[in-house]
Specification:
This protein has helices at about 25-30, 35-60, 70-80, 85-100, 105-120, 125-135, 145-155, 160-165, 175-190, 200-225, 230-240, 250-260, 265-280, 295-305. It is mostly helical. Among the domains are: about 15-60; about 70-200, Tetratricopeptide repeat domain (Serine Threonine Protein Phosphatase 5, Tetratricopeptide repeat, Alpha Horseshoe), CATH 1.25.40. Helix 12 (about 250-260) runs antiparallel to helix 13.
Length: about 300
Amino acid sequence: MLQVVAHEPPCLEVRGKSAALHTNDNPTLHAMPPFFRAFLGLSRTFGIVLILAACSGVSEKKDEKADWTAEQFYNEAKQALRDERYGKAIEHYETLETRFPFGMYATQGQLEIGYAYYKSDEPDSAIAAADRFIKLHPRHPNVDYAYYLKGLVNYNRSIGFLERFIPTDSSQRDPGSARDAFKDFQTLVDKFPASRYAADSRQRMIALRNNLAIYEIHVGRYYMKKGAYVAAVERMNYVIENYQRTPAIPIALKILEAAYKELAMNDLAADTARVYAMNYANGIPSSEYTDLNQSLAEDIWDFIGLDED
């Protein structure tokens, strides 16, 4: 049975003025009618019983997990994770580390709680858990998973309410998280090229790079739509310099040619057209971005009016 330790709040003791009610030198008591004195006596007795009962309830309350071992906490957390009860898994992992901060179960729990946070849609907590694990256990045999988890969280964290219900173009999301995810996967591949997560990370990096490039295309289209042709030229040159071998390159060349024409830079427009003809004689390679018209997502943005000044 769990013992009530000394630092818990002490039970209330009946002392002082209430005790004077039973002394013979209390003139106020003698002045009261007998039935009222009896009522006060019963009230005091009933109050003491309630206080003692409350104290007894505190002392007899038992923590069902008080005798659990580190292995029990870990197994319960792992089972909750398998059952997709992520809140309960997090609770068990946290208690495990609090009561048993050292040992293999606590260490593994520090890694797995990051995944539980990720699945419970708490990306900041998931990233913090992964960073903490990397800092505390840089040579752990499973530290590569912490880097991979960071990449996964950032890869998916920009998906908001709209994207869950309406088919949208992922390249039009805020690129900040995509850039972070790319860096996380890049770090994993560089540090652990033989990791079991390296192949998947490389595939995700390709998709992220393509999306980042196409994001720049959307920005360039926006500048063209607003008549900001110089800004469009700068943006498309950035794409050509930084995102070679992506589906964005031929589209960037066409936008660049159009922007040069609008700026009356006909020589540069002709040079750009020649580069395009040399590399894409059969037209833009087949991809989901070959159509220079607006995507479904852009149609939605225009309908809502998000592009309006």
